[in-house]
Amino acid sequence: MIFTSLFETAWHALVTHRMRSFLTMLGMVIGVAAVILMLAIGQGAQAMVRSSIESMGSNLFIIMSGATTSGGARVAGGMAPTLTFSDADAIRGLGDIVAAAPVSPGTAQLIYGGLNWNTSVYGTTPDYAVVRDWPMESGGFFSEADVRSGARVVVIGAVVARELFGDEDPIGKIIRIRQAPFEVIGVLAAKGQSLDGRDQDDTVIVPITSAQQKIFSSSMRNRARLVMAQAVSDKRMEAAESGINELLRNRHRISAGQDDDFTVRNLTALAETAASTTRIMSLLLGAIAAISLVVGGIGIMNIMLVSVTERTREIGIRMAIGARRRDVLWQFLIEALTLSLIGCAIGLALGIGGAWLVGNLAGLPVAVTPASVLMAVGVSFLIGVFFGFYPARSAAGLDPIEALRAQ
Amino acid sequence: MATPGKPLIEVVNLEKDYPTGAGVFQALRGVSLSIATGEFVAIMGASGSGKSTFMNLLGCLDRPTRGSYHLDGMDVSRMSSDQLAALRNREIGFVFQGFNLLPKLTSLDNVALPLMYAGMGRQARRQQAQAVLERVGLGERSHHTPLQLSGGQQQRVAIARAMATRPRIIFADEPTGNLDSETSHQVMGLFSQLNRDEGITLVLVTHEADIAAYARRRIRFQDGRVVEDVPQKAVTA
Q1: Do residues A216 and A106 touch, judged by C-beta distance below 8 A?
Q2: Which residue, among A81, A129, A127, has the nearest Cα to A106 in the 3D structure?
Q3: Does residue B79 belong to the interface with chain A, where contact is any CB pair within 8 Å?
Q4: How far away is chain A from the Cα of B28, in angstroms, using its nearest Cα?
Q5: Domain residue spans in chain A?
Q6: pTM of the prediction?
Q7: Is the ipTM of this complex over 0.95?
Q8: pLDDT per residue over A316-355, tens digit each?
Q9: What's the Cα-to-Cα distance from A255 to each of A104, A133, A250, B167, B212, rounded to whole Å?
C-alpha cells in the first residue's frame, strides 16, 4: 500500500472527528508548550548566570577583613579593617597570584551640574582593573602614582556616565563626590548584572587614598575592608588560597589554634555553585514539563483504544476488501503519530510565543534553543509511536469475521 | 482466466470446528464440491446450517480445520494471512446484507478503497472507481455519502466496490436482506447482468426462494452438510 494513502486515510479520520482530535491533541499541545517554555526559562537563567560569571573576572579571591565566625559565634560587623595596603602588596608578591588590589567600598552622592546620582564608590588601586578583567570604554584607569599622591581622579561606570552625562563626553569633566571635586579620566565598559543581581555598572572607582581622605574621611588610613586577588590559573586556585592564608596568618601574627582575623572567599567556586544550581533548576523544570508530555501521550493512547473499539466494523470491512494486518497497523499508528506531531507543532508555536511573552513582558531572561525544539519534536514522535503502537496492534490483530459482525 | 476444464473453486472434505464452552461445535462436517468459472450459484439453508461458515471459508476470511480448498488451483488452506488478504483484494469481491460501506466516505472513495490496498495511485484509482460506479448506474452519485443514498443505491455502491479490482468471484451474503422486494429484484438483475456480460462467477447466500431463483445452480446446506446440489433454469432479468 502506498504511504501517501496511509496519510490520506489518517488525515480523513482525524478531520472527520475534529473535536475529538483537537481534545486528544490538547494534551500534547500543553505538554510540548510546557517543555519549551520551561526549558527556555531554565536556559535563560543559565545563560544569565554564565555571563555574570564571565563579567566577574576569572580565578578571583576576595579576602575580607575580620573573621566570619570567632569561636563559633558570628563577629559583629563594623569593626576596624584588619587588612593593610602592605598585606595587599604581600599577596601580590605570592607566586600563584597575578594581581591584588585593596578595596575600600562605600556609597556617595555624585553631583554634576544640576544632576545628582547616588552610587557605590570603590577606593582601590590600578590592580583592580586587572583583577576584575574590566576594560575601558573610553579614557584610562588611574595610575600607581595617582594612588600615592591621592589624586582627585575618578573612573566611572556605564550607568553613572549615562545618568550624569547623557550624550555628553564625561572625560575631563569635574564631578563632585560628597562635595569633593574629582576629574573624570575614564569610563568603564558595561558589564551588566552581577550574580547577586546588582548592576555592576552603577559605580565609580577612585584611588583608595583619595577615597579615604576626601570621601569617607576614614580614620583607618592604609587599611582596607577587602583585598581582591587573581590567581594565575584555575589549577592554582587551591595553592593560592592556602598561600594567602599562610601569608596573612604570619603577617598578622596569629598563632596556631587562634582564629583568623580575615576570611578568604573563592568567588569562582561560588559562581560554579550558582551555575550548577540553575542547571539543576532548569532540569527540574524540564522534567516536570516532560511529565505532562507523557500524560498527553497516554491521552492519545486512550482515545486511540476507544477509536479502535468504535471502528471495529470498519476494520473488518477494510480487511475483507484486502487490507493486510500491517496496513491496519500502519493506519492506526500513523493516526496516532499525526495527532502527536500536529499537537507538537501547535505546542511549539505556543511555547515559543509564551517564551517571547515571558521574555518581553515579565522581563525574565529566556532562550529557546534549537536543541530543545528538536528534543520536543523527537519526544513527540516517540510518544506517538510508543502510545500508538498498542491500539494499532490490537486493531491489526482483530479477526475479520468477528470484526465484520461488530455493530 | 481460468484454465479450461479446471474448476475455479474446488473443496474436498471441508470441515470447520469451533470451540465452545460445551466442547467442539462442528459447523461443517465434510463438504466437497466444485464451482466452475462463470457459474451463478445460490447457497440456501436455515440459520446454523453451516452456509455462512462455508461462505467465510470460500471468501478466504477464515481457514478450514480439515480438508482442502483450491481457488484457481492454489491451495488456500496453507496460505498466510497476508496472502489471504491479497487474494481477497484481487480475486474476490464481497457484498453484504448490511452494505458495509464506510459511512464517512463518498461512494467514489468507498469504491476506490480496495484499489488503495492494491497499491494503486490516487488519480488512477479514482478514475477506475468512477468507471465502475457508472457501470452500476451511479456515475452521478459518486460524491454522495452512503447516508445520502437509498438502500438500493447503497447496495449498488457495494457491488461496485466488490467489482473494483476486477475479481473473478463475487460472494454475496443475503444481499437483498435489507431491501424491499422491488429494489431486491433490481439488485438481482444487476448481479445477473454482471454474471452474464462480464463472466463474473457469483456465489449468493440467501434463504429467499425467489432470490435464489436468479441462480442457475442451487446448493442446500443442512447440519454442516450439502443435502441438495441441483441445476435450475435461471430467471432472466
Answers
A1: yes
A2: A81
A3: no
A4: 16
A5: 3-52+273-405, 67-260
A6: 0.74
A7: no
A8: 999 999 999 999 999 999 999 999 999 999 999 999 999 9
A9: 27, 36, 8, 106, 119
